[in-house]
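Input record, target 12 of the design panel.
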C-alpha cells in the first residue's frame, strides 16, 4: 500500500506529447508557406516595377533622341543639282511673265515624311553632325516588325549627303505597335504625316506618337509635342 501511494504521489515528467509536437510542426509549416508566398509576391512585384521603369526610361530616351534630332536639324536644305540648274526656256509662266508660284510644303526644309504604299512610316531629316562641326548628315526613323529603328548617314560638308546604309541602323525600341506623326499647321490644326496636298503656312510643331504593346488590352499611347522654330 505504501509503495502504491508513493507511485501515485510522484509528479508527472513535463514535456510535449507526439500529437502536440505534430501540431506545432504543422503550424510552423503553414506560417513558413505564408511567409514564402508573401516574399515571392513582393519579389515579383519589385521585378515588374523595375521592368516597367526600364521600359519607361527607354521610351523617354527614344523620344528625347527624336527631339534632339529635330532640334539639330538644318533650317535650309542643301541645294540639289536640279535646284541649282536654271529653268528650261519652255517652262510655263504665269500672267505678267512671272514663273508660277511653287506649292508651300508643310514640313520645313531638310525634313521629309513618307510612306510607300502599306509600308512603314519613315521620317528623314538633315541635321548638323554633333561630332563634326560644319558637316551635316541624314537621319532616318522608321518602324519595322515591331521595332523602332534609327539610322544616321556619314557626315559630309556638301551635297549630296550620303544616305544611311543598312549597317548604320540601330534598334532603339522594341515592342512598338505603331509610330505616327502629325504636323501643326497654324490656323488649320493637326495634319497627319505624310501630308497630302500643299499647305497655306509651314508647320510650327510636330506631334510624335508611339504605341507600346501591353500584356493585355490595347497598346499604350505615348505622345510628345515638339515645337519647330
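The sequence produced for target 12 reads:
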Amino acid at each position: 500500500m505504501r509503495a502504491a501511494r508513493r507511485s501515485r504521489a510522484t509528479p508527472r515528467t513535463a514535456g510535449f506529447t507526439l500529437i502536440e509536437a505534430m501540431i506545432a510542426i504543422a503550424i510552423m509549416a503553414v506560417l513558413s508557406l505564408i511567409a514564402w508566398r508573401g516574399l515571392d509576391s513582393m519579389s515579383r512585384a519589385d521585378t515588374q516595377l523595375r521592368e516597367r521603369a526600364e521600359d519607361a526610361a527607354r521610351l523617354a530616351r527614344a523620344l528625347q533622341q527624336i527631339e534632339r534630332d529635330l532640334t539639330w536639324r538644318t533650317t535650309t536644305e542643301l541645294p540639289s543639282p536640279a535646284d541649282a540648274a536654271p529653268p528650261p526656256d519652255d517652262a510655263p509662266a504665269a500672267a505678267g511673265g512671272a514663273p508660277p508660284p511653287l506649292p508651300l510644303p508643310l514640313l520645313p526644309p531638310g525634313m521629309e515624311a513618307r510612306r510607300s504604299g502599306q509600308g512603314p512610316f519613315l521620317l528623314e531629316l538633315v541635321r548638323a553632325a554633333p561630332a563634326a562641326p560644319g558637316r551635316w548628315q541624314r537621319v532616318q526613323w522608321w518602324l519595322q516588325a515591331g521595332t523602332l529603328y534609327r539610322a544616321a548617314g556619314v557626315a559630309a560638308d556638301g551635297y549630296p549627303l550620303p544616305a544611311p546604309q543598312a549597317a548604320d541602323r540601330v534598334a532603339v525600341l522594341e515592342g512598338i505597335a505603331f509610330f505616327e506623326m502629325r504636323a501643326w499647321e497654324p490656323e488649320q490644326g493637326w495634319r497627319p504625316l505624310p501630308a497630302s496636298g500643299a499647305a497655306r503656312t509651314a508647320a510650327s510643331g510636330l506631334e510624335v506618337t508611339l504605341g507600346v504593346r501591353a500584356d493585355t488590352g490595347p497598346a499604350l499611347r505615348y505622345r510628345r509635342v515638339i515645337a519647330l522654330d
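Residues 18 and 170 are 68 Å apart (CA to CA).
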